[in-house]
Hints:
Elements lengths: L5 E3 L4 H7 L8 H9 L13 E4 L5 H9 L6 E4 H6 L1 H5 L5 E3 L4 H7 L8 H5 L7 H6 L2 H14 L13 E3 L2 H11 L2 E4 L9 E4 L6 H14 L2 E5 L2 E13 L2 E12 L5 E6 L8 H24 L8 E11 L5 E10 L4 H8 L8 E7 L6 H11 L3 E3 L2 E8 L10 E7 L8
Parallel strand pairs: 1-2, 1-4, 2-3
Antiparallel strand pairs: 5-8, 6-7, 6-8, 9-10, 9-12, 10-11, 11-14, 12-13, 14-17, 15-16, 16-17
Amino acid sequence: xxxxxxxxxxxxxxxxxxxxxxxxxxxxxxxxxxxxxxxxxxxxxxxxxxxxxxxxxxxxxxxxxxxxxxxxxxxxxxxxxxxxxxxxxxxxxxxxxxxxxxxxxxxxxxxxxxxxxxxxxxxxxxxxxxxxxxxxxxxxxxxxxxxxxxxxxxxxxxxxxxxxxxxxxxxxxxxxxxxxxxxxxxxxxxxxxxxxxxxxxxxxxxxxxxxxxxxxxxxxxxxxxxxxxxxxxxxxxxxxxxxxxxxxxxxxxxxxxxxxxxxxxxxxxxxxxxxxxxxxxxxxxxxxxxxxxxxxxxxxxxxxxxxxxxxxxxxxxxxxxxxxxxxxxxxxxxxxxxxxxxxxxxxxxxxxxxxxxxxxxxxxxxxxxxxxxxxxxxxxxxxxxxxxxxxxxxxxxxxxxxxxxxxxxxxxxxxx
Length: 416
């Protein structure tokens, strides 16, 4: 029997790639997020796998998750695991951090000697500069450019709106005069962080300083028009040695700044008009085969093995027509969509819900979770979730960040 996989939640991996150093650490707020959500890889793994965590989940959390039917893997703290020579020498199949970076390789290096030959033969067993380039937003831009040239579709974004790399604020200003409102992104960033909207001209002093800081941080920024967004839609894949497997869709939502907030599960909010649902459904049918062909032609399985998520953006153009950017960005790692896809399997067919990430400066996740557990208690049918609120990350220790499952028996309301 093959050894277990080892999982690690390091969602700041994109920033670690930009930093280049093996010793990089995120800022205090991002460290808090990693600590508060440290158990989330348990929704990606099997029961015999191991999740490295900052702190072992509380008995109350594990009891609630077990009651809701979720698999409970082995947990071991990062600190303890790195000092436990017996544990380090145990046979391991694969190392599976949330995402790879020089810092992730450095942290997990002690376990590599115990990994399987399959892991050692994979292109992600060691870090190299080619991977850094691959994981940049410029790769997504290249694929999008090629896709628009090779696959003509009336609903695809016009090539004139492709993102542009800029290394000065003056270049950004010229694009504002061309396109109007802009979205500026760091080449290596994730989950809606490392973004800056530009919505007026001349630039406000604080916006100019923010853009200058972004350019200084990573050398360039990617600039694209700020479109009239209708819906966020992700496509989830697993890149394997012998090909690319499509896993499912990620119907997610963000806040006004573009930061990830959660996923719709088993449906749409009632606020989504029927014509938009039909358009989304048509794109869900169309794009997976095209994505896979594009990634295959690029020989991605020779350079990367593991999960990826391709985010798209559905919007209305100036004429009011529904359009899609079919490759807005590529996440070369696990995404919250992968977590949502597995959590969704625990919901009965007739119910719908949301998987959400909580962060509120004025209320802790602990307080929010206890309120929701009281007002929306869990109900089960045949061992699956029929309705109710389920905290799926730690909620017993006054945590700031949190993750949850919220399920109802009726269509999703616009408030979700």
